[in-house]
Amino acid sequence: MILPADYHLHTHNSGDSEAPMEEMIESALKKGIKEICFTEHMDMDYPVTEDLTKDYFLLDTASYKKELYKYKEMYRDKITIKFGVEVGMQTHLAKKNSDYVRSEDFDFVIASIHLIDGEDPYYPSFWTGKDVKKTFGQYFEYTLENLKIFDDYCVLGHLDYLVRYAPKNNKDYSYQAYSEIIDAILTHLISKDKGLDFNTKPLYTDKSCPNPNTEILKRYKELGGRIITFGSDAHKADAVAGSFNKARMMALACGFDEYCTFEKKIPIFHRL
Ligand SMILES: [Zn+2]
Ligand SMILES: [Zn+2]
Fold first, then answer.
1. Of the candidates 15, 75, 104, 183, which lies 20 to 30 Å from 237 by C-alpha distance?
2. Distance in Å, CA 238 to ligand 1 centroid
């Protein structure tokens, strides 16, 4: 059984990873993966905090690309390596992000929301004094608002990302509780031939649901969606293809029988 391609990987080119690219590639090879795509962070206007400098998530694209093409050539008989990016959406950045993506010959682009009102839910301080249920709703609304003005991407990254970091034991999250806005996001993606990043990170870290959860994946399929990519969102070598066996079974159970890789932003379908 060959695992699906891993289409969400970070290396030292991303502000929050120190992983050498070659270690990530070797790890993929060890797991028998035939294709990977690096998707380094490009989050413009990420807020300055105590421990992060202004350009923490700004990607040095030229240097990243040079390194990637070196390994692509070096490993070409062993594994296919694609050139991707994970772009952080904020409404005021729609044009800047478009210009950026179009200025490069990316194979694959993930569009993600990492910030709401300029704050990252990754930090516990984000949640202080916030109504969790309302914040989830705002997050989905903000996602749709961004997708309506930014179109230069292939898949939406980790659709319910903020749930990963929400205070534990909250009972406010389920697809049903936000079905209207989530359906609007999914319908929008489908009408634009865009896909979903099936993000397995929570599966191999705290063993919770993937992002998005399986109810949302199932709903995307029901509404006519066909494009999913598998992404471990690994920031270090041992996490490459993390929980991919389990994720593959989950995708099959949600009704998918194929998944995608990309070449110059065009999807290529493979049997699951
Ligand atoms: Zn992300
Ligand atoms: Zn990521």
1. 104
2. 18
Can you give the three-state secondary structure of the chain, one letter per residue? CCCCCEEEECCCCCCCCCCCHHHHHHHHHHCCCCEEEEEEEECCCCCCCCCCCCCCCCCCHHHHHHHHHHHHHHCCCCCEEEEEEEEECCHHHHHHHHHHHHCCCCCEEEEECCCECCECCCCHHHHCCCCHHHHHHHHHHHHHHHHHHCCCCCEECCCCHHHHHCCCCCCCCCCHHHHHHHHHHHHHHHHCCCEEEEECHHHHCCCCCCECCHHHHHHHHHCCCCCEEEECCECCHHHCCCCHHHHHHHHHHCCCCEEEEEECCEEEEEEC
Q: Report CA(185)–ligand 2 centroid distance (Å).
A: 20
Task: State the distance from the centre of ligand 2 to the C-alpha of 228, rounded, in angstroms.
Answer: 15
The rounded Å distance from CA 127 to ligand 1 centre is 18
Ligand 2 centroid distance, CA of 40 (Å):
7
pLDDT, tens digit (0-9, with 9 covering 90-100), for 31-72 = 999 999 999 999 999 887 767 666 889 999 999 999 999 999
Ligand 1 centre distance from Cα of residue 118 (Å): 15
CATH homologous superfamily, domain 6-271 = Metal-dependent hydrolases (3.20.20.140)
* Residue ranges of domains in the chain: 6-271
Which-ligand-closest: CA of 233?
Answer: 2
Global confidence as pTM = 0.97
Amino acid 247: pLDDT = 97
